[in-house]
Specification:
Protein name: Cytochrome c biogenesis heme-transporting ATPase CcmA
Helix content: 25-40%
CATH topology of the largest domain: Rossmann fold
Radius of gyration: 17 Å
Domain ABC transporter: 4-196
Number of helices: 5
Number of strands: 9
Organism: Seongchinamella unica
Number of domains: 2
Strand content: 25-35%
Shape: globular
Pfam family, one: ABC_tran
CATH architecture of the largest domain: 3-Layer(aba) Sandwich
Oligomer: single chain
GO molecular function, one term: ATP binding
Bound molecules: adenosine-5'-triphosphate
Largest sheet: 6 strands, mixed
CATH superfamily of the largest domain: P-loop containing nucleotide triphosphate hydrolases
Amino acid sequence: MPLLAADNLSLERGGRQLFRDLSFKVFPGQLVQIEGANGAGKTSLIRILAGLSRYGYEGRVSRSGAMLYLGHHSAVKALLTPRENLAWHVSGEADFSDRDIEHALARVGLYGYEDVPSHALSAGQHRRVNLARLYLSQSPLWILDEPYTAIDVTGVGELETLFAQHARAGGAVLLTSHQAMAVDYPVSRLDLTAGIAS
Ligand SMILES: Nc1ncnc2c1ncn2[C@@H]1O[C@H](COP(=O)(O)OP(=O)(O)OP(=O)(O)O)[C@@H](O)[C@H]1O
C-alpha cells in the first residue's frame, strides 16, 4: 500500500502550466528526489502533496499514515531557544522527555546550543533546529522542501544517512534538492513532466 498517491495532478501558475496529469505513488522504503529547474514547480507540487495548497490545482492526493512536512522557510521562533522550539514542535506528536529533545539537538550538532536564544544562531544552525524534528519523528512519510539549504557538507552527509535509515526501516522520504544525492541507497527521481522513474 502506498504512503502517498498522486492522481492526475495539474497546476497552472501565472499563465504557465507547471505540470499536467502527473500521477505517481510513493511506497514504504522509497527515497524520492523531485527534480527540476528553478521555477519548475517543485515547491508548488510539494505543498499540494503535503495538503497545504487546497485549491487552484486539479487532481487528487491521498496519503495513508502520518506525515512530517518541513518547508522551505524555517519555522523556528527567534525568541525561543532550540530546546523550546523543538519541544513546541513535537508536543503534539508524542510525550518526549527533555533527554529526547537534547539527544535530537545533539544529533544535528547543536550540543551546547540548547539554551541559546535562536536569534543568536547562524542560518545553518537555525535550519538544524528544524531538522532535529526528523530525529524524533514517528511519521512514516517525510516530505521535505530543500532540506540541505544552509547545511554544511558534513550535515548533508548525516541527513542522507538518516534518510536511508528511515527508508530501510519502512518509511519513505520525498524531497526537493538541487544537489545530487550521494547516499548508499537507491534514489528514485521524480520528474514533473514524466513522474517517477525507478
Ligand atoms: N503565489 C504564487 N502566485 C503566482 N505564481 C507563483 C506563486 N508561487 C509560485 N509561483 C510561480 O510558480 C512557479 C513555480 O514556483 P515553485 O516555487 O513551485 O518552483 P520551484 O521548482 O520550487 O523553484 P526553485 O527551484 O527556485 O525553488 C514559478 O514560476 C513561480 O513564479
